Amino acid sequence: MLVQSNHIHTFRLRMIETTSYTLIDGKKVSTDIKTEIMQRVAERKEQGKKLPHLAIILVGDDGASQTYVDNKVKSCKSVGFHYTMMRFADTISEEKLMKHIDHVNNDDDVDGFIVQLPLPSHISVEKITEKIRPDKDVDGFTNQNFGSIISKSPLLMPATPFGVMELLRRYNIETEGKHAVVVGASRIAGAPLSMMLTEQAHATVTICHKYTKDLANFTRSADILLVAVGKPGLITGDMVKEGAVVIDIGTTRVEGPQFAKGWAIKGDVDFKTVAPKASFITPVPGGVGPMTIASLLLNTLRATELQHP
Questions:
Q1: CA nearest to 238, candidates 182, 205, 277
Q2: What are 83-139's pLDDT values in tens digits?
Q3: I want to staple 26 with a disulfide (CB 3.0 to 4.6 A). Which of 10, 97, 284, 290 is the partner?
């Protein structure tokens, strides 16, 4: 009996080790999108039409924000967009910042506009966001853009969820009638993503959050599991069913001596234990992350086309 038990155990391990999955390469898809944008910009130039112009406001000297902004500027250059950088000290008043936003709103040469988050504590993110003209809001954060997700013709969609939807589409992942479980209900990712999956992908959606009890009971039922909470390794192999599509949106900097740089970027999914059970899975980094900037560029191009056909 003992020999038979060991034999069965060995067979099961072998089955897990040989399970294959497709890695969803966000870097490649984002590069493809940038190439497509470059072609559309070149066509506009040939036709004598206005080229896209993105304005970026950065408040303070937060290192992570500076890195994000540098990447956005680099991406603008690579696809042929014009750009304007506006930097302000973290002591700027909310009223003064709003006046600068008004100026950009009224500048016909600027098509897309973002205020890099986070902002200093004395400035209301909601007030600043709502001050941005919806047709220039290429982050897709304003109430009008958020609400337009459920319409037949959304204006400018939130960049990160937009990037996730592009990955699903470009990898031909079937979504219609599938059970999608979204873990995380933030305004930036989880909430708009759940709406997009319902309205655009025709999936049956369950959204979980920090108040959800017995999270694993929901995640095990997911055909498509999408996680955006910022808790490294939250989702483990025993919480995912065989063959699930797993999209990891979380990115957290984890420090420790075990990492070559002293730190590493980790996702919400424990890749090592989850990947063998998945049919498709995104890595972190290199999955959803690159798609956020690609989506921002797509939104900027769309804003330009809407304002200057």
A1: 277
A2: 999 999 999 999 999 999 999 999 999 999 999 999 999 999 999 999 999 999 999
A3: 290
Q: At what angle do helices 63-79 and 26-46 cross, to 10 degrees?
A: 50
Q: Which residues contact 18 (CB under 8 A, 6 or more apart)?
A: none
- Homologous superfamily in CATH for domain 158-288: NAD(P)-binding Rossmann-like Domain (3.40.50.720)
Q: Which of 34, 72, 136, 266 is catalytic?
A: 72
- Do residues 190 and 184 lie in contact, with contact meaning Cβ atoms separated by under 8 Å? yes
116 given a catalytic annotation = yes
CATH class assigned to 50-133: alpha beta
For residue 299, the model assigns a pLDDT of: 98
pTM attached to this predicted model: 0.90
Specify whether the CB–CB gap between 276 and 20 falls below 8 A: no
Among 25, 34, 111, 116, which one carries the catalytic annotation? 116
Specify whether the CB–CB gap between 289 and 251 falls below 8 A.
yes
What is the residue extent of each domain of the chain? 50-133, 158-288
Active site residue 72: yes
pLDDT digits (tens, 9 = 90+) for 24-71: 999 999 999 999 999 999 999 999 999 999 999 999 988 888 888 999
Query: Is a pLDDT exceeding 90 seen at residue 206?
Result: yes
Which is the catalytic residue, given 139, 223, 268, 270?
Answer: 139
Please indicate whether the domains covering 50-133 and 158-288 agree at the CATH topology level. yes
Q: How far apart are CA 303 and CA 113, in angstroms?
A: 10
For residue 150, give the nearest of 110, 199, 87 by alpha carbon: 199
pLDDT > 50? residue 147: yes
- Residue 18 has what pLDDT? 39
